[in-house]
Write a structure and sequence with these properties.
Length: about 190
């Protein structure tokens, strides 16, 4: 028998999930209407669990979950986006399409020797480092895939991008692309660190 009814450090589902009917209804409505949203609050109150539980229950939608926790540099941002898309594509049966869409970043797939799960890595073929254009390309690729795959995107721990010295440029590039992607819903979740 569990002595503590709360689970920390994992996305909670099933019996352990604490529903918030009113908030879930708002999140669901935003996802279905293509509205972007931000969910920000104290740590460990269930933001990620809430938003992923709602997203997974959406009819005919595929969830792209990107975790920016401890993101280190601009190219890491691009890689996390691409890896999340490739993982969703692998699970949903459109991996070949997604890998060709990210061809400028040269995606490669290998298998974890311990559990056999596929893992993805990227190499930027145009340059060996991040350029402002690569973040735009990653977001445009998501948007292009959305036309046939019907995606919702969660950018979790989004506040960690602010720790990167180039964060103003990254955020400007993200905004410049996302604001024109009206048929795709993004959710930005973040927490207070202190």
């Amino acid at each position: 028998m569990k002595t503590n009814p709360f689970s920390y450090g994992v996305i909670v589902t099933g019996e352990d999930y604490c529903p918030r009917t009113s908030l879930e209804k708002t999140v669901r409505s935003n996802f279905l209407s293509g509205q972007n949203m931000a969910l920000h609050g104290e740590r460990r109150i269930g933001k990620t669990s809430l938003i992923t539980n709602v997203a997974k229950k959406l009819p005919k939608k595929r969830l792209v979950y990107v975790d920016f926790l401890f993101v280190n540099n601009p190219m890491d941002v691009v890689e996390r986006i691409a890896q999340a898309v490739l993982e969703t594509a692998n699970a949903s049966g459109f991996l070949k399409t997604a890998m060709s869409a990210f061809s400028s970043l040269r995606p490669t797939m290998s298998f974890d020797p311990l559990n056999g799960a596929p893992t993805f890595s990227l190499t930027n073929t145009s340059e060996s480092h991040y350029t402002p254009k690569t973040i735009e390309e990653a977001l445009q690729t998501i948007y292009s895939l959305n036309e046939k795959q019907n995606l919702v995107v969660i950018f979790d721990e989004f506040q960690d991008i602010l720790r990167i010295p180039q964060s103003p440029e990254i955020l400007a590039k993200m905004r410049s692309r996302i604001q024109f992607q009206s048929k795709l819903s993004y959710a930005f979740t973040g927490s207070h660190r202190s």
